User: What shape does this take?
Amino acid sequence: KAGVTQTPRYLIKTRGQQVTLSCSPISGHRSVSWYQQTPGQGLQFLFEYFSETQRNKGNFPGRFSGRQFSNSRSEMNVSTLELGDSALYLCASSLTGHTNTGELFFGEGSRLTVL
Amino acid sequence: DQQVKQNSPSLSVQEGRISILNCDYTNSMFDYFLWYKKYPAEGPTFLISISSIKDKNEDGRFTVFLNKSAKHLSLHIVPSQPGDSAVYFCAARTNTGNQFYFGTGTSLTVIP
Assistant: This one.
């Protein structure tokens, strides 16, 4: 079974630009979550989608947005990029969105550098 | 507001000895706690979890202990192996959704 796939793996943008990251969850998984990882901050929750609906949202500005398609694939977008947006963006999928094990399956991440 | 805290950024342990990684939390609504392991250039992988109704869960060399009164979680690795060298994240989930709160991670180095 293929794992969580994130594209692109690496990208460089400049301040003010916007970026779109893509995530394909494990087949059959309907919940997709996004996390931002920066040094010293750990993984910060961005949002979670389940069946094309945003169910939870973290404390990030409105420049960060996402969506989920009918095939459960998800995208997140960051507009008007700032230097502080440089981070590893991780996508995670889970089967139902509230499993007993609480297990998330993570992709390898998209490393965004903002210059 | 960091609801899950890992106060030790790094830990070094001799091969064969016990590794103890600690985690503290503040939210009494957390119902599930997990440990993830992360190697460089890879996403975190699930290691072990524990429900808030238990105080111990064991899986091979890995044991997680939960002390709810102290709001403290720990991961014990016995015996430690060089392949265990990685960053370990503690995470917690509330009983109201699928949002996970992660600690900042502890980098474990197991010295051969």
The longest strand of chain A covers residues 42-50. Chain A touches chain B at residues 4, 31, 33, 35, 40-45, 48, 50, 55-56, 58, 90, 92, 94, 97-98, 101-109 (CB under 8 Å).
